[in-house]
Each structure stands twice: as C-alpha cells, then as structure tokens.
C-alpha cells in the first residue's frame, strides 16, 4: 500500500468520524450531549484539515507519490 493510499484512507476515516459526530449531534435531544458532539465534530474537522494539508505537502515534496493508484 502506498503512502498516498494510506493518507487517502486516513482522511476518509477521519471524515467518517466527523460525519458520525455531526449525526449524533443532530439526533440527540439532550442539549449537553448535542453541544459535546458538536464540539467533537468541530475538533475532528480540524484533524481532517491537518491531514489534508499533510497529504498535499507529501504530494508536493514527494512527486513519486503524486500518481493515481
């Protein structure tokens, strides 16, 4: 498995976690939990952004990884 593929999988997984937390926030009626899930989803968005940035950096620094699988 290439670094490119591993990064793509990590980003997809992180996006899935963010989507789940957002969904939990929308579905719960408990206001404290709604706020907690929203905060966690926001933190997860930051993680996704960092992973995407690192992925772009890898593609820029390592041209051999900038190939379509």
**Cα end-to-end separation:** 10 Å
How much helix, percentage-wise, in residues? over 70%
Largest sheet properties: none
Low-confidence parts, pLDDT < 50 over ≥5 residues? none
Q: Structural class, from secondary structure content?
A: mainly alpha
User: On the 0-100 scale, what is the average pLDDT?
Assistant: 91
Strand content: under 5%
Q: If you compute it from the alpha carbons, what radius of gyration comes out, rounded to the nearest whole angstrom?
A: 15 Å
Count of strand segments: 0
Give the SSE string. HH
- Output the number of helix runs: 2
Shape: elongated
Features:
mainly alpha
Describe the protein's topology.
Elements: H1 3-27, H2 31-61
What can you see in these coordinates?
The chain is an all-alpha fold. It is built from two helices and no strands. The radius of gyration is 15 Å and the shape is elongated. It starts with a helix and ends in an 8-residue tail after the last helix. The mean pLDDT is 91.
Question: Quick summary of this structure?
Answer:
This protein is mainly α and 69 residues long. It has helices spanning 3-27, 31-61. The longest helix is centred in the middle third of the chain and has 31 residues, at 31-61.
């Amino acid at each position: 498995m290439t670094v490119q593929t591993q990064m793509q999988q990590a980003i997809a997984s992180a996006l899935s976690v963010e989507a789940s937390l957002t969904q939990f926030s929308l579905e719960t009626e408990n206001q404290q939990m709604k706020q907690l899930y929203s905060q966690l989803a926001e933190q997860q968005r930051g993680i996704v952004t960092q992973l995407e940035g690192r992925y772009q950096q890898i593609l820029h620094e390592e041209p051999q990884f900038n190939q379509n699988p």
